[in-house]
Amino acid sequence: MRGGILAAWAADGFERGRLGYPTTEETATVDGSGAFGWFQGGAVYWSPATGAQVMSGDILAAWVAQGFEQGPLGSPTTGEHPTADGRGSATWFQHGATYRSPATGAHWLTGPILAAWVAQDFERGPLGYPVSDPHPRGRRHPRRLPGRQPDRHRHRPGGPGDRGGSRRMNARTLRGGVLLTLALLLPGCTSGPDVTAAASTTSGSRPSSDPSPPPSPLPTPLPTPLPTPTPAGSAEAA
Q: Do 69 and 176 belong to one domain?
């Protein structure tokens, strides 16, 4: 190591700092615009336009995922520094910034979205910290905001989210089947709101609003009583 990268490592406390020991030699960047050195706890990137900047943790990982200096952010122009509210940290780049907090992770912003967020007073404004990276127009980010999300089955009676409704429906169906069976077998139980509702529930339709009485069920023949067996020897005795 030499030059700006060595100076940045020294300013961070050498091996006793957050970077620890170096794990690579100083290497030229892919686009040839600068150089970098990797360490146990992060990296130092240098270019003539930006100087040497220390990066580590989630912010470094987010920058790597976007293609290093060839990505939308370009090279870092600042090191990682605490945010104004004291809850997170940020690093600025040639074309944007990456903000991180324990609750949201690290997310990068650039262009008009970053400008609008800055105009709303950064993380201190009504928007708070970013919870996603920018994504192409017309797509919605799959990540859900913190908090309880509505269950799509919650308001569907008998659905997976309505266990109570399913139990009530099963109870009504069972009760309706019992009452309808009694109405068909026992005389005098062929009318009344319970029997009408039972027939409606069992058939899967709503009770009819027609005030006329329901049709009488077909007579069910009762089984012929079996002959009482005669005790053995009675006929001979007679």
A: no
